[in-house]
Amino acid sequence: MDLYAENILHHYKNPIGKIEDETKFDCCHRELNPSCGDEITACIKFDDDKINIGWKGTGCAVSQSAISMLCEIWQENPPTEDDLLKFSKEDMLEILNVPVSNKRMKCALLGMNAVKNALQNKNN
């Protein structure tokens, strides 16, 4: 399967969960991939038992699509804090459903790491 599969290109061109204003969220965290310049800021809003996630960022199709795919899944089934903490690299790669080389792994995991670190910011 091609790295830029149709689903990845769709999310890159039509991102889900992308925000302009992070002040409406309870906590945020910015992750940067210095090797390529990709960056994602993930923000979390706690609303009773529901967690809403938004993001903003720039970078390659893999990093931007990965966070968009997470937001799509989590909009349909809002996660708990425990769900976010348990979410793994393997879960992310399964969602992407394309082979990811070692060189692109940090891009693929950038959004997931930003969300997890945003949650840690809330807890600190």
Written description of the protein model:
Strand 2 (38-47) and strand 3 form a beta hairpin. The protein has one domain (6-123): Sufe protein. Chain: A, CATH 3.90.1010. The protein contains 5 helices and 3 strands. It has helices at 6-13, 61-76, 81-86, 89-96, 102-123, and strands at 27-33, 38-47, 50-58. It has 124 residues and is an alpha+beta fold. The longest helix has 22 residues, at 102-123. A 3-stranded antiparallel β-sheet has the order 1-2-3.
How are the SSEs ordered, and which strands pair?
Blueprint: H1 6-13, E1 27-33, E2 38-47, E3 50-58, H2 61-76, H3 81-86, H4 89-96, H5 102-123
Antiparallel strand pairs: 1-2, 2-3
Helix pairs in contact: 1-2, 2-5
Output the helix-strand order. HEEEHHHH
Number of domains: 1
The CATH topology corresponds to Sufe protein. Chain: A
Side by side, the strands of the main sheet go: 1-2-3
How many angstroms separate the termini?
41 Å
Question: In CATH's first tier, which class applies?
Answer: Alpha Beta
Rounded Rg: 13 Å
> Whole-number average pLDDT?
91
| Number of beta strands | 3
Q: Approximately how much beta-strand content do the residues carry?
A: 15-25%
Determine the structural class based on helices, strands and strand pairing: alpha+beta
Largest sheet: 3 strands, antiparallel
Number of helices: 5
Helix content: 40-55%
CATH architecture: Alpha-Beta Complex
